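1st attempt posting a full record on here, be nice pls
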Amino acid sequence: MDNQIHLSDIFSRSDLFVGIEEDKLSDIYRFGNRHTFESGATLFHEGDPAVTSYLVLSGRLKLSKLHEDGKEAIVRYINPGELAAAVSVFKGKLYPVTAQAVGPCEAIGWDRKTILELMAAHPRIAINLLRMVVERLDDIQSRYLELQTERVEQRIARALLRIMNQSGRKTDKGILIDFRLSRQDLADYTGTTLYTVSRTLSIWEKKGWIQSGRELVIVTDSHALVTLTEPT
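the predicted structure (as tokens):
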């Protein structure tokens, strides 16, 4: 029963299923295949044929691309209730990114044929998917503009705020980013170096804006980070 409640909660909160009657959600779930992934497991690689899209039930996915020189760039984190790779599967293309589990992760996957059948049976899913794609394109454009115009400290602050808003959990010490986030991950996410991220976080820690440890970040003064992101 608890498991069913958990699934119902995730599905009802997912933007993909907004407007879908609750009694239809269990049918949609049964069309998919449920998977459990260990931390660091790869769901799919960049350049592989796109055959399955995944809705995250618990845990998180890291989507990344590789530069020609082998350097990783983190494109996005996929949180519970969010979908990964739907468009590439729908179009019958290649996966444009690599997806890895950040910590233990559980997801449900639908193949291309099933996605098309679900869209035909529930047109609202297609409308929701289009809205999600537009929102992600807006996010990509915003991050591209940040890379081109903002100082690195602004980019790091904005990244922490973005991740905090998506995956933050209130604690006695502040807002804990509720998954393993290393300084290298943050460097890959903001297009800078490990040295720069480490130096910046150390300065902010001395100022009392954050607390950090091994793959751990707590934002203790989000207002200071917001102020830093504002134009000077």
